[in-house]
Amino acid sequence: MAESVVKGPASYFPSIEKKYGRPVSEWQELIRSSPLTKHMELVSWLKAEYGMGHGHANALVAHFLAQGK
Is residue 47, in this structure, part of any structural domain at all? Predict the structure, then answer.
């Protein structure tokens, strides 16, 4: 039986949840409620407001924006 391998931004989700103590759905809701709309604005906001690393913030924002808000 072949294992399903998660690729792309979602591959960061388990480590994001473990490191920052919130489920990805909560991060997505925070991004959704933000007045910011541009990718790097949102990444910078997550880094400044929540102390998130660049890779984790980038993964959350990329996944969120790919879903079309």
Answer: yes
Q: Tell me the C-alpha distance between 20 and 16, whole Å.
A: 6
Output the pLDDT for position 68.
Answer: 81
Amino acid 18: pLDDT? 97
CB distance 28 to 42 below 8 Å: no
For residue 32, being part of any structural domain is answered with: yes
Sign of CA dihedral 22, 10, 62, 37: negative
Single pTM value for the model: 0.87
**Residue burial 48-59, b: 16+ Cβ < 10 Å; e: rest:** eeeebeeebbbb
Low-confidence ranges of the chain (pLDDT < 70): 1-4, 69
In terms of residue numbers, what domain contains 35? 9-66
In a domain, 1, yes or no: no
